[in-house]
Every structure is written in structure tokens, then in C-alpha cells.
Amino acid sequence: MKRLIKELCAIPGVSGFEQDIRSHIAQLIQPYIDDMRTDAVGNLIAFKKGAQRGEETETARALQNVRGGLLIAAHMDEVGFIVKKIDDKGYIRFAPIGGIDRRTILGGKVLIGKQKIPGAIGLRAYHLVSAKEEKNVPDVADLYIDIGASDKQQAEALISIGDEIVYDSDFADFGQGMIKSKALDDRIGCAAMIQLIKKDLPCDCTFVFTAQEETGARGAFGAAFSIQPDIALILEGTTAADVPPLKGHRQVTRAGEGPVLGVMDRGTIYDRNLFKRLRRLAEQNSIPWQTKRTIAGGTDAQAVQTAAGGTRIAAISVPVRYIHTASSVAAISDCEHMVALAEAFIASVAYESEE
Amino acid sequence: MKVRNNVDILQTLRDLNAHFGPSGEEEAIRKRIEEIAPGRIDEAHVDALGNLILRRKGSGPKVMFAAHMDSIGLIVTHIEKEGFLRFGNIGGFVADNILHATVRFKNGTKGTIIPDQSADRTKLTLNDLYVDIGAKDEAHASSLVDIGDTAVYEAPVSETGDRVISAYLDNRISCVALLLAMQMLDEQNSDTQNDLYFVFTSQEEPGLRGAKPAAYAIDPDYCIVCDVTPADDQPGTKHYGSTKLGGGAAIKIMDTSVICHPEMVNRLRTLAIENGIAFQNDVIQRGGTDAGPMHTTRAGVLTGGISVPTRYIHTPQEMADKRDVQSCAKLIAAFAGSDLDKVR
How many Å apart are CA A181 and CA A18, to the nearest integer? Predict the structure, then answer.
């Protein structure tokens, strides 16, 4: 799984610019699915028939025959930036795509456009920074990217206004089962879905690798609207804050202590019975689990839940420290546990009756 | 067996408030409303979001009435070693609204909301507050309450003259108005052919979430949202609203989620005048309603609103006037029984 996450994280896919990551995923899953399409917003929608093993319950039958059945979604886009302006000196002015803490990008490495032109997010030399200035974090509007061009013309030969900008960061496998990379949110979810797709599944599932989650769950809305599932499961990366000096309830989630079961966040109150089902399945399968200690964040669930006539919604997330930065950190055990729990969930939808 | 109660405002409010129903967990309140809903109901349906849809069939245009039945509440996010509970908010309120309120969990456990001793009292946030359920430690607390459990205000329903002081007038009082209107329709032996949908929506408080799929599924010709509206008759008001307690049914013109179609505003005003129902104009610059997602459903829906002016919304002591509730119910019933054309 680590290798797959590494492979997926390396591919650029800023919201709205998901072509590369989408075609890569499409290639990986092609042999294991029955049908696949890309919709107008750029969601990759894959349908896989269930193996129909064992005894079919009424629920399983209902799910397969009525509307869209079970939908599983993870977003394939990542946060990044976009080129706004190229100034006379050849420096690039840019704007963020998605929620990026500007404190984390000063001096960062980036790649711009299809040609992956390397750039550095520049800042005046420390020698020249006044004591007062040092206390303030500059606005993104005051930052620039240096691509080594000597003037506007040279810069324009390499890049254009509107080009996407992605973090340039290496994957690392370090410490006690921890991984570090850009885009862990939500390539972890994508990797989990790919692993599920490779398995024999007990009921029909529609997998959606969604576009534009980071800019407001925009892709998922259209996908859910066209599929109209009865039940949807979102696989996500979520904020971990098990870092100093935060304590107790302010830690939100803790990396390495199991996947996070969706109860409530700023965008969604998850289906109570599905939350309880996930909790029970985790306990039954000895999978560690946790819930958010502070209500924060949002996922594709907010769009899926209320699309068309509405959908019962559940979520499993992996805690990610320094989420939305070039160096986000997660525990590989949480990723593996997410796959195991999602698999148990699919089986429960196929075989169990409603509780 | 259906219990067909006579809808008394105060008694019904007490009944509804005794039933648990924070956003996302509306099962108990939903079941109770279904039990006591009066008048002819041809179909009852609960959808994926937990909306309760009661239909009185007709061959005419589809009219959807929506009153949200969910309430604001707390959700436990963390249990401390000492047995105190940290929580998040379900719906919009600030520390000031809930300080020292008594709360009740679904299983009956009670608690009170207290700020950290170290917190700056002038800048309290919800992160500075905890629920004390009287547990002696984490294990004791965990035996009473689980992470993810929710709690609601535990506050009495009091009467003072024509007015009611109670938690959750938002929006149980509009549920009462809608139930009352259903009873009126029956008593008037209305022979209307309008295809009526009385919808008690879920998850309004966290972001108008339930009404959207309900409206999509029903695909109505007309929508009327029944909610409370912040009254503008309190000392020190900044005039974000326009209504007064006792001034009659508030006919919605605008809130932050909707600008009601002038045709709907006029229809409601005309019906109020024709039927001698007290009414007032309702414009609010803070707060949205289910009217927002409903009027933009599919190709758009003609949408209006009938609201109960309410003071101190989202505190455990909200206040409204029973005469306004009566006026709202009459206006809802009048619209339900009025001659309407199919829009499509």
C-alpha cells in the first residue's frame, strides 16, 4: 500500500487540473472494473459488479436493483496554486487553490504547468527583513515564484497565466511506520479505493475518484447527482493535531491511532446508524478507530448527502498531520486499517439487514 | 394506531420538546410528529436524510410546506480523564447563548455547561466550555455518555400571558403551527384538490440540508417554509429584522437564503386580508431558512414563508406569542386550501 500511495502522491493533480492523476488511476484500475467514464467536471467514475457470493439479503438485492446502490468516493485532486500574473522582471504572481496556510509555503519548491517548470517561492533575504516585518506572515499576493527567468518574455516562453502550480516534494518513509509527502490528502483514499477495486466484492459498487474537492466538494456533487446512490462511503484524509503544544480535545485526531469514523464535521452530520455500524465493524474486526475531538473540516460527504433526493452517508478518514502542506505526515497503519474497515463495510451492506 | 390529538399550542409544544431531535438524530421527534399529526394523511414517507413527508393527495398542483423539526444541540467530541465532556456545536450558537444551561442526553443523562476556570470570561469560545455530568472520572463518564452522543437543552415550557418561554421554539413552534393547520384543513372540510405535502425537515440548523433532497424528490409547484424569524422588538436592537411579537404571522419577503417571489408574498398578504388574519412583513438580514435550498430546487420553485416572530433564538429561553402561532396556522391552512394553478 505504501508503494501505491507513493506512486499516486508523485503525480500532480491540483483541483481543476486532474488530467494526469485521473489517467494514471484509470490505467491502474482498468483490468478490474466493468465500466468506466469521466464526467464533465472531471470525476472518474468506475463501476464494478459484485461477485454475488453467498446468500443475498434483501438489502443487497435492493441496493443492486434500485437506483445507484453503494457509492464509494475519494477525491483525487490536491491543493496547489495557479499563475495569476507574470511581472516585467519574470517573477510569477500566484493564488492558492484550496485551503493553504501561507505560513507553510515561504521558500517552498514548486512545479509549474504541463512542462513542470521548477520554481522557488521567493522572499526577501533574511538580512533585509526588519524586526517588525519578521513578525508578520506576508500575504500570498505579496509573494512570488522565481523560475530563474530574467524577464517577462523569457518567463512567458515557459509558462502561461492560468497554469497550475503543484508542490515539489519527495515521498519519505520514516520513523515508526510513518510516511511523508504532498497530497496524502487524499491520495491515501484513492489508494484505498484502488485496493478495494482489485478485490472480489460482494455487491455492485460505484467508485468515484472525485475532482475539485479542495475547492468546495464541487466534483462530488455532480457525480452523486448522476449516480443517486442509496448509501455512500467517503474515504478521506483529515486533520491530525497530535503535535505540541496541543492537548486533549484540541488535538482533533491522532496519527497512528486508527482511522477516523465520520460523526460530524463542518459540512456534514453523518448518518447515525452508519456511524454506529462502522464502529461496530471496527470493534468486531479489531480495527482501532477514533472520532474527531473537535468539530472541524468538511468532505465530499456534504455534496453527496444532499444531492438529488438525498443519500445516507458514512466516512472513514486517515489522520494527516500538516495537511495541505508539501510535507504532510500520516501513519501507514491507519491507511491499511481504512482499507480493512471499508471492506468490512461493503460486506455489511451486501449481507446484513438494516439494524 | 394513529392518535389523533386535538392540537393545543402549549400542550403540543411540551409534547414535542419532550422528544429528542438534534440535527441528524431526529428519529424520536419524527416518530412523535407522525403519531400526533391530525387530519387526512394518505401517504407517509421517511427519506434518506430523515425528512418526514406526509402527503394529502390531490389532483391539483403540488404544494410543499416545510417546518424543520431538528433542534440545535451539542455533540460530545472528547471525554477528559476527570470525566468532563468537550463538545462541538450542532447548529449556530455562541458560548454566551448556552453558558450554564442544563442539557439532556438521549439516555436521560443531565449535565451543565461550564467554562474552564482559566478561560477569559470576556472572550469565551465553545472550546473553553465543557459539560459536567457529575461523573467522577473518565470511566464513569464513558459509562453514561459515548463520544458522538448528542445533547439538547433541558428547559421548561412556561407561559406568561399570551407568550411562551421555552427552548426550541425554533422550530418546534412552527411544527405546532403546521400541525394546527393540518387540523384546521380537516375541520373546515376543505375540498381542495391541491396535492399537499407537509414536510417536517431534518438538519436545517447545521446548513439547510434536509429540505434540499426533500424538495428535489417532491418536485413541488409551490413551497411554503414555516420557521421562526428573529423578532426586532428587543432593547438595543440593530434592526436586522422587522417583526414584533404579537404583530401577527410574519410573511417572509427576504432572508439571507431567499428573496421570496413577489407573487407568493402578494398571495399570502391577500389571503391574510381576505381571511382576517393578522400579518406583518418579514425582512431579516441575519439568518437563512429552508426556503433557500427549496426555491432553487430543480428548475426553481415559487417559494414563500410564514414565520413565528421569536425573541432570543438559540438560547434555552426563546419567547414567542401564541396569537402569532394561531395566525401562522390559519395562513398556512388558507394557502393550502386556496385556488392555485399548476406552474408546469
Answer: 18
